[in-house]
Amino acid sequence: MKKILCLLIINFISIFTFSQSDEKFGVSSNTIPSGLHVGDNAPAFKSIDQNGEKFDLLEELKSNTVVILFYRGNWCPVCNRYLKSFVDSLQLIQDKGAQVVAVTPNAYEGVNSMSKKLNNQLTIISDTSNQLMNQYKVSFNVTDDYQKKIEKALSTNIAESNNQKRAKLPVPATYIIDKTGKIHWKQFDLNYKNRASVKSIINNLPD
After folding, report:
1. What is the pTM for the complete model shown?
2. Which pLDDT value is given to residue 192?
3. Binning pLDDT at 50, 70 and 90, where does residue 19 land?
4. 191 and 25 in contact (C-beta within 8 Å)?
5. Confidence of residue 31 (pLDDT cuts 50, 70, 90)
6. According to the model, what pLDDT value does residue 22 have?
7. Could you say which of 39, 106, 162, 206 has the lowest number of CB atoms within 10 Å?
8. Is the dihedral of CA 180, 184, 189, 195 positive or negative?
């Protein structure tokens, strides 16, 4: 009986700690995403990038491996630093036969702002409807406390910047999709400060 009670207490503490940690990153505990898994079929999609160009995943996979990056928005200092550093080495990934597309819930005003910061070097897709984020299982509801924190610190209303009624954000995950359309590698971390490095992406590109 004592062992059972101890186990229940330990499980409760673990769940509580996990939930508290998630909420620190703005993740509502009832919408914790799982992400797709290596070996899963990558959901096919067609969209329009910041330049008005069509992006068709299936068409792109006929000739290239595709790397999909999810990021939170142009208001996010961590995203800005990461993507600026990323595009400096973008050519190294492209030289390996891979193309990169970034997906964000930001409306196109935010997308265009980010694109200018990156000298239009990165293909960016706006996903205000959350369709892609849901398909790739990275979407979560943002806690009210975190929204207030961002509004106070960065003068940004997350829902408004995404043209959403309820604020939703993606885990800043990275998926490498091979030419067969399967998830070949992923980086997935609720802690938005942890991102896939260019080196780790290159090391995990399919042969």
Report:
1. 0.88
2. 95
3. very low
4. yes
5. confident
6. 59
7. 39
8. negative
What is the 3-class SS of the chain, one letter each residue?
Answer: CHHHHHHHHHHHHHHHHHHHHHHHCCECHHHCCCCCCCCCECCCCEEEECCCCEEEHHHHHCCCEEEEEECCCCCCHHHHHHHHHHHHCHHHHHCCCEEEEEEECCCHHHHHHHHHHCCCCCEEEECCCCHHHHHCCCEEEECHHHHHHHHHHHCCCHHHHCCCCCCEEECCCEEEECCCCEEEEEECCCCCCCCCCHHHHHHCCCC
pLDDT digits (tens, 9 = 90+) for 90-116: 999 999 999 999 999 999 999 999 999
**Cβ distance 71 to 104 under 8 Å?**
yes
Phi and psi angles of residue 41, each rounded to the nearest 5 degrees, phi first: -75, 130
Query: Are the CB atoms for 103 and 132 separated by under 8 Å?
Result: yes
- The pLDDT tens digits of the residues spanning 146-204 come to 999 999 999 999 999 999 999 999 999 999 999 999 999 999 999 999 999 999 999 99
Task: Specify the length of the chain in residues.
Answer: 207
How far apart are alpha carbons 187 and 108 in whole angstroms? 26
Taking CA atoms, 141 is separated from 144, 159, 199, in Å, by: 9, 10, 31
The residue type at 182: K
